[in-house]
Specification:
The protein is of the alpha/beta class. The protein has 15 helices and 12 strands.
Length: 366
């Protein structure tokens, strides 16, 4: 007997159809997914797997209550920032806009790369807006939407690491680094990472109800969905360093671009600078000023790797108004000039690309 094609009688008078014979239904939510080149796999996989679990009964993985497709500028594949490729299912010419409710944009490896791609993706993204789709940006995908003027009049949930760059590029758009995601009318923004699961749950609650939205979280080993304003332990004051030091570190992160002094930080947490330095020396064997400078230089190093902004612009992001002085601080800490550091990083990227066909295609696309 072919069980897959035979109806199963659960009780008298009622026949339950197996998956192969289940009647098609109209999906509650329809999503078009746009991963930019060098997209991050974590938010992409988390968001898509949450849709998959909620889309069907049991774990059949059929697109019934939810439907999704992957769109790209051209047929073929798109490569993630880890070198894994996924297939493009639709090109813009093949999209029937009335079949979708949302366009979800997954950002690229860096905010700079994402902004640079705005012109290439303008027709596709603006086409979605013209046809009434809600835009959801993931991670630095909001840079592309902002570059196209599609976030004017909206607030943005953003990963703290991107805050200074976004604020410098789009000073009129309010940012919310304390929120994992933000629903603002026809625009939704998500900070990325594992928060992609949380924003997917909230979206599904609105369309499918809470029970179906929560379906599958246990299989994903997720205890419960986090609210938009969930406070991350990794960004809050660290209990092992004590209340004053933990609060001071939090303020240092928030005031990375500020010209305020360590004395101002100490005053904000309610102790003197001398007391704050003593606590930092006990915890880290360095003063609060040295700790803050290291934090700023590590930020500068990361930005040199992931942005093509001028040194003057990057110096502003760490509260240094003199670019040459920022360069001196960088050389003193890392033993290389900012220019040579960027050249070496690019050389290593090219070498890695030559060693991998997928990476080679990514470099040529830039």
């Amino acid at each position: 007997m072919d069980i897959a094609r035979t109806a199963v009688r659960k009780r008298p008078g009622r026949v339950v159809l197996p998956p192969a014979q289940a009647k098609p239904i109209a999906p509650d939510v329809r999503v078009l997914i746009l991963p930019l080149p060098d997209f991050a796999l974590l938010p992409f996989g988390g968001f898509l797997d949450k849709l998959r679990f909620s889309a069907d009964d049991e774990d059949y993985s059929r697109q019934r209550h939810c439907r999704w497709d992957i769109v790209g500028l051209k047929a073929g594949t798109v490569t993630s920032n880890s070198g894994v490729e996924i297939s493009i299912q639709l090109t813009p010419q093949q999209v029937c806009w009335s079949d979708y409710d949302y366009l979800v944009v997954f950002g690229g490896r860096s905010a700079t790369d994402t902004r640079r791609r705005a012109r290439a993706y303008a027709s596709l993204v603006k086409g979605a807006v013209r046809h009434g789709l809600t835009l959801l940006s993931m991670d630095n995908g909001c840079f592309l939407l902002a570059e196209l003027g599609l976030l004017d009049g909206h607030k943005v949930a953003l990963h703290p690491r991107h805050a200074l760059e976004f604020e410098a590029a789009f000073p009129r758009i309010p940012i919310k680094t304390e929120q994992l995601y933000l629903f603002d009318g026809k625009r939704i923004t998500c900070a990325g990472g594992s928060a992609a699961i949380d924003v997917a749950v909230e979206l599904l609650v609105q369309h499918c109800g809470r029970a179906r939205a929560l379906k599958g979280l246990a299989d994903m080993l997720v205890d419960e969905p986090r609210a938009s304003r969930h406070l991350l332990k990794s960004q809050s004051a660290e209990p092992q360093v004590g209340r004053y030091v933990g609060r001071a570190i939090g303020l240092m992160r928030k005031r990375l671009a500020s010209t305020c002094s360590v004395a101002d930080i100490a005053s904000s947490v309610g102790i003197s600078r001398r007391q704050l330095d003593r606590r930092f020396l006990q915890q880290f064997e360095q003063t609060a000023q040295a700790y803050w400078q290291e934090m700023r230089l590590q930020h500068l190093r990361w930005r040199l790797l992931n942005a093509d902004s001028s040194l003057a612009a990057l110096a502003d992001e760490i509260g240094v108004r003199d670019a040459s002085y920022a360069g001196k601080l960088f050389r003193r800490r890392f033993g290389v000039s900012t220019g040579d550091f960027r050249k070496e990083a690019e050389r290593q990227r090219v070498e890695a690309a030559n060693a991998s066909p997928a990476l080679s295609r990514r470099v040529r696309q830039r």
